[in-house]
């Protein structure tokens, strides 16, 4: 199972596999016709309230992950299509945040990797990922 991350502003590549936008809002400055996607999964993104609270503040990362994990666990229909797609090939989670480490797609990637063993994870997935450089998460 391979789940990759890519900013919406980066060019798509053949190695991306199936691409899913996992944001509530469409990326600024990107035309819908210019972003190749399998689907836009708004419900797999954090709630508007959580997104606004987090405001991409790295100091809130751990609490964001805890809250986002709870949202995901309560709505498996939002993320199970991603997990199913990843079981059949490479999936790329497309996001728009500038911070490549502290964003909902990174948290969702870890959540899905944990969930691939069965049920939704019970603990927040946003722990430091030692030994996993950018080359394994971004293309």
TrEMBL record:
InterPro entries the record matches: YeaO-like (IPR052552)
Region of interest called Disordered, as start-end residue ranges on this chain: 115-139
One Pfam family it belongs to: DUF488-N3i
Compositionally biased residues, Basic residues: 129-139
PANTHER family to which the protein is assigned, alphabetical: CYTOPLASMIC PROTEIN, CYTOPLASMIC PROTEIN-RELATED
The protein, known as: MarR family transcriptional regulator
Organism: Myxococcus xanthus (strain DK1622)
């Amino acid at each position: 199972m391979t789940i990759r991350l890519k900013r919406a502003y980066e060019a798509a590549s053949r190695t991306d596999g199936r691409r899913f936008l996992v944001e509530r809002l469409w990326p600024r400055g990107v035309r819908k016709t210019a972003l190749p996607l399998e689907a836009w999964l708004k419900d797999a993104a954090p709630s508007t309230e959580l997104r606004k609270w987090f405001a991409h503040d790295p100091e809130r990362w751990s609490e964001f992950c805890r809250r986002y994990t709870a949202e995901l666990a309560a709505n498996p229909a939002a993320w199970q299509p991603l997990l199913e797609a990843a079981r059949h090939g490479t999936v790329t989670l497309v996001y728009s945040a500038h911070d490549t480490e502290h964003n909902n797609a990174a948290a969702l990637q870890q959540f899905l990797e944990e969930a691939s063993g069965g049920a939704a994870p019970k603990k927040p997935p946003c722990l430091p990922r030692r030994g996993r450089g950018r080359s394994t998460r971004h293309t």
